[in-house]
Structures are given as C-alpha cells and as structure tokens.
Design brief:
By secondary structure, the chain is α/β, with parallel strands linked by helices. About 25% of the residues lie in helices and about 25% in strands.
Length: about 280
Amino acid sequence: MGSLLDDRCIVEAKIKRDTFIAIPSLDAFPELVHGFTTRFGGVSTGDYATLNLNFNRPDPESNVKKNYEILSNELEVPLDNMVLSHQVHDKRILKVTKEHRGMGIVRERSYKNIDGLVTQEPCLMLVTYYADCVPIYFYDPVDKVIGLAHSGWRGTLLNIGGETVRAMKESFGCSPENVFVSFGPHIKTCCFEVDHDVADVFISTYTWAGSYITKRAGKWIIDLESIIIKNLTEQGVLERNISGCRICTKCNSDVFFSHRGSKNQTGTGAAFLMIRG
C-alpha cells in the first residue's frame, strides 16, 4: 500500500486553521487539485460551525453558499466549475461533463441519487460531502480520468469503490492497474461500532468480511477501509497504488465534522478533486 494520510495533517491544520488538508499521496500528480475540508474558516454557527458544506442541514442556505464561496476563493476555482453529488448511500456513479458545471451549488441538478462522480474534463471540480463516511479519490494518470466516491457502511456494502473503477473503465477505457486510489479522513476502527445486524449483513454479502470484523464490549467493529481495499484489488486495482488513512474523524471532531463525534448534530465537510486545465 502507498503512503498513508496521517496525523501530521491534523497538527498543521490546527495550527494554521486551514480550510482544507491536501491528500499527500496525490501530491505526486501536480496536475491535480485535491483535498478534504476541515471545520475552519467558514461562516456557519452553532452545531454547523464553521465551514458546513451541506445544503441539507438546518443551516441557512446563505451560510452554506458563502462557505462554498470561501472554498472557491481559497482554491481559485469558480463555483461554476464545481459539481456536487446528491448522496443517498447508494452506488450510482455520474459521468460528469461540461453540461453539469455548477450543479448542486449554483444551479439545480439534472441528476439525483448520485454517490460517485467521474470525469475526464479538465477544470471541472468533483465535490462529495462527509461527516464520518469514507472519501475515496481515484486518478488514472494514463487516461487522465478522476473520480470521487462517498462510501459509508451502506456504500461499502454495495461496493461503490469497485463501481467507480468500473465506471472509469466503461466510460473512458481506463485500465484498473493504472488507477491510483487514496482515502480521505473517515471514522476508523477505533470508533466505528455497530450492532450485530450490520455485521451480519456484511458477512452474508462478503464471505471473507469476517476477517475485517471484530467484537468489542458487546459491539462489532468493522474495518471499512480494508473491505474497500479488498474490493478494489478484486476489481484489478494494484494494492501498491492504494493509499490508506490513519485519521479518524470522530477522534478529531474538533477539526473535521463527525456525525458520531457530535451526537448526530453536525455540519458536513467535503472532498474535492480536479484536473488542472
């Protein structure tokens, strides 16, 4: 496995109050703009302080729009060049084209129920949003294709990671062995506890899933990242091209929005990825 996204990013973000952290493994590709947002630098208040990027929270729309404007200025990427997912914890992937510019942020969407985005268009920024779920970044430097997928436990169960690789292959002719995959901050095994019914459905779906599930104090602990990696390698992605993440959003809910860390009252951060023009 490639280099890990580790706690040094958190230390720097706390000191500098950065609006986002970069994904270190993607720094090898200077043609990409990439990152994962923190809680810092926005205008939202209360439970949603401060950089909430989810229009579906009880946070005034004007605040969320302003937060996107702040991110836009920071990245020097116009809002019109961003495309926002419409997440429902499913596995549908949208092939993003120029006609989708600004949708979900400054224009109405022409799509719905989309948890993954892929594109070959430069200067189109893919945006997905999170508060504990797993952000998965995809890049094929050969065919110049990017993707983002939102993988909570339901999305992991549905193998949205593998579906994204398939979409890249079917839509753009990508070879899985050319695809690099990186994970952003998400809830880790230190904090992701579920009841037996969720563990049971994983084991019934994947015969091998028991290797990534343990029991602790009457709860079951699921290693979502390892299950996603297993599915990606079965799809043909090389394990050496996959970069993991040590950062737990619940453990660091002062830096990142965390559904569990904030007892279900929280804003939402975002993953973003773009090929420079």
